Amino acid sequence: MALPSPEHLGRLVAPGKWLWFKRDLSNYYHQLALPQWLCRFFGLPRLTRAECLAHGLDPARPCPVLLSVPMGWLHAPGLAQLAHEWVLLPVIPPSRYIQESGAAHIGSWRAAIYIDDLGVVVPEHEVDAGVGADLQRRVDACYEAHSLGVKTAKNIDLTSSPMELIGTELRNTATGVLVLPSVKSIGKVVGRSLEFLQAPPAVGLDVARALERLLGSWAWVLLLHRPAFSFLFAAYHFHQHALSRGAAAVTVWPSVRRELVSLLAVLPLLAANWARPFHELIFASDACPSGGAVVAALHEAPWFVPPASLPWVVSRRRSWSRVEHINVLELRMALDVLHLAGRRQRGSRVFVWMDSQVALGVVRKGRSSSAALNAVARHLAVAGFLTDCLLMAAYVPTEANPADGPSRASANTSDTFRQDFLAAVSAAFGGPSRSSSP
Question: Can you give the pTM of this predicted structure?
Answer without folding.
Answer: 0.84
